[in-house]
Amino acid sequence: MKERYEELIKIINEADYNYHTLDNPTITDQEYDKYLRELFEIEISHPELIRDDSPTVRVGGKVLDKFNKVHHSIPMLSLSNVFNESEIISFDNRIKKEGINPNYVCELKIDGLSVSLHYEKGKFVFAATRGDGVIGEDITENVRTIKTVPLTLSKPIDIEVRGEIYMSKTVFNELNKKRKENGLDLFQNPRNAAAGSIRQLDSKIAASRKLECWIYHLPNPEDYGISTHYEALEFMKKLGFRTNPNNRLVYSINELLSFIAEKSKARPNLPYEIDGIVIKLNNISDQKKMGFTAKYPKWATAYKFPATEVLTKLIDIVFTVGRTGQITPNAILEPVIVQGSTIRRATLNNEDYVKSKNLKVGDIVSIRKAADVIPEVVRALPERRNGTEKDFVMIKNCPICNSCLIKKEGQVDYYCMNPACDARKIEGLIHFCSRKAMNIEGLGDRIIEDFYNMHFINNYVDIYKLGEHRKELVELEGFGDKSIDNILNAIDNSKKNSLERFIFAIGIPFVGEKTAKILAKRYKTMTNFMSASFEDLKEIYDIGEKIAKSIIDYFLVDFHKNQVLKLIEIGVNEHSLLMNSVENKFFSNKTFVITGTLSKSRDEIRQTIELLGGKVTDSVSKKTNVVVVGENPGSKYEKALKLGIEIWDDEKVNEMLNN
Q1: pTM of the prediction?
Q2: Catalytic residues
């Protein structure tokens, strides 16, 4: 732990120096936030490790000697970050726990450079950067060139205000176009361009960059008889400062979340870059009550828009064995937040995929969520390599049973062909019980693996005989009569599932959830399906020769066929319920997405929608007709708002389904 702690301090200090002093960031904001969060977590759990020079006790880096140093009489603190709806709600709850009935001012988080402006008797006297929060840099002459910074106020008062210097998208594009024509390096983004411009020694260069400034903070509002932040914004506006017209006073958490959704949708059309929404407690006395940490005000936070593509480190590549024996390489990653959730691993699909991405263990890699759901490695960053990375080597033997792997003709995947491989059998059982298959609640991955190792469950049929081991089960740690009853009831209820779940559950290679529904509608019963010929199967739309051959090969294995027959004999429903579906004009030929927590399970809603002629998918797109939204819906809800898709809440979907 100490070694990791020291490593984090080194990474963050180097990043601070490159970012604040050299204007040459070497890691992204997302990477910086991730490392800083990890450092905070270590210091909370291991306070004995805390060093005086930890980045958590300061804000930024060293100051360049080429500008005069300026001492901030009131420190310029940065803001804490939140990354999803649940963290925003937690922020709101922390304030309410202090007995405060909050209203908030929501502001666009401009992606630029923080600045402090000072006036004496209404005249502009000097400007300073934030620097390390206590000591900044004097950038007065360059700020004088910014036309949106008033040189004379409407009242002859002494005042300090704070804001953000930025470069518009149009100016940024024009600047890079000229630099390209002159053979100069291009700026990476408007934020870097603004920071580079404001630190020019020649103020003529800064003037040519057409920088702009929004003012958003008055450090000492009570000195002017002001009791709320919103009043402070209005006060500064009347003095002649430029405040953002998008600022909004909200009175509830729902209004706050609606503002975020609205501005997320509007973000691409803004003339400047924003990377989030700033949330500030409005009442100044409430702000005082909440106070500060060493680094952040407790009364404000910044919601960061989800990164569609983020960077992290590829720590290792490990191999797993699937239910069909397929070997899959998996990326083990330094934990990173992608679109509001923490990602620690991602599938690498197969050997060809890894080689095509030129991945090495130790690489910095780009990660995103495919269809906003599944984590995937997009690319490696070879320019970030330091020589310690290791080449990827495909294994030749099964990591579980050590049998030789086979690469089937015409396929890119390797397979463990040993039918007795424990990993294959366990994965098959896990799949059978999974939510989209037989949906046996209580039989999760760990429990199935334990029951397999204890020889309670060795195959599908054993699942339905689990009650025979009741006496041994209730004696296990963590199990009691009630929990065992719940599992056995869930097993018994799974017998009532429709045929498509049964077909999907038995794990025929290449037969997924969608294909299982096609087959269930076509053959009506499992008995009919098992008797289908190759010629008949391959003629079905969306089936074809590959899947048809896989089905025939599956049932040629006596063990597979006998297992299915025994399941039917035990009482597992072999009939399709889809054949009784009645299409409904509100659902037929429409595409639905379900997100968040609802009063009914997602599977129950999904199944009913499909029975009524609708289609349920996992990701929101322009082709989506309706998004069903429950509590804590996440990014799918925001995307639906952005695309203007019809939204049904819990009450609405229940009303439609019941009707």
Answers
A1: 0.53
A2: 109
